[in-house]
Amino acid sequence: MKTDNKQLLIISNQVELINHLKENLSVHCDISSVNSMHSGYNMAVDILPDIIFIDQTSLPSKSLKNISNFKSTHFLNKCWLVMYADENLKQGIENEYKDNIDEIIYSTVSLDSLFSRVIQQVHSKFSITNYWKDSFLGLFNLLVNPVVLLQQDTIIAMNDAFKQSFKIDSLVDLKLTDFVNCENKTKVRASLRNFARGKHMKAVTNTALQLKNNKVRNAKISFSKLDKMIYGQFIMMIHFSDDNPMISEKGGSHSQNVRSCFEENSNLAEFSFTKREKEIIQLLCKGYKTKEISDALFISSKTIEKHRANIVKRTNSDTILESIIYAINHNLIDLQYN
Fold it and tell me: CA geometry: angle at 56 spanning 51 and 57, to 5°?
């Protein structure tokens, strides 16, 4: 669900064939390649390719026994699965794989014909990424509660209720951590990473979420993995305190670390800088350099740098300038201070 370009995944152990395919098809689609069926399946559930090209001529026959997994996986059963196969093994291949493959192209076909057939499929109107995205959006836009689709903490898609509740006009670079306490952003990201790696399929908890107008609303939120094989993709449903619950807490396995993390977000003390941090920020606002701050406060330049790094970290910023802007916008320093 991440790109408008068609995705082609090549599973082959034949370098020359892979290079030919990339050379002739890269202008038509985005191409990834792996050299084993195991790696191919793992990559397929990660990138959700529109086309999966399996080179039977270069892969061990034993590795092909699980080829049915591709079509039996929920998010892959709409992809075009094509096998490039040895003509001399045609009868056995037809008997063994025809029910699990959309098309078999035999090695007696010229490479130009092979490229043309793949290009034809690339330019077909169907797209697996659009199929699942449109289906998902069509479903969750019917829900009255805010719902988002996440890749880790990045919001990939949101329903109308979420846009209205959080006054969202654009999805560009929007993250879940934009709606939690500033001090807790790093911990929220770590918690979601741990949830992605863990065995639990669901986490239900209570927390405080910050709306774009700086108002805070208490909410019950539920995370659910889309598929245990797809790393880091979740559906998150939000139920504000005054709403009736729309989901059951009984189903699935629950992740306690996510629950604890978001509950702590609600209980954090009000954010503030230390006295020394305020002094440093105020001098930075006046244009002081590190050496000048060191002289003014009678502390070493090394200590100044440590304070600066801590300020950047605590405000979840990338630069000290962003931290200063954050401090000013949230009235965390007194610019009249002398």
Answer: 130
Q: Rounded to an integer, what distance in angstroms lies between the CA atom of residue 133 and that of residue 107?
A: 35
The domain over range 7-126 is classified in CATH as 3.40.50.2300: yes
Handedness of CA 137, 140, 146, 152 (dihedral sign): negative
Name the pTM for this structure. 0.44
Question: Token pair 């034949």 is at which residue?
Answer: 14
The domain made up of 275-329 has a fold known as Arc Repressor Mutant, subunit A (1.10.10)
The upper half-sphere exposure of residue 6, i.e. CA atoms within 13 Å in the direction of its Cβ, equals 21
Give domain limits for the chain.
Answer: 7-126, 141-267, 275-329
Digit-coded pLDDT (tens) for 29-61: 889 999 999 999 888 877 778 899 999 999 998
Q: Where are the alpha helices (DSSP H) in the chain?
A: 15-25, 37-47, 68-72, 90-97, 111-122, 128-140, 160-166, 185-197, 256-267, 275-285, 290-297, 301-314, 320-329
Q: What span, in angstroms and rounded, lies between the C-alpha atoms of 243 and 210?
A: 17
Q: Phi-psi region for residue 26, left (φ > 0), alpha (ψ -120 to 50) or beta?
A: alpha
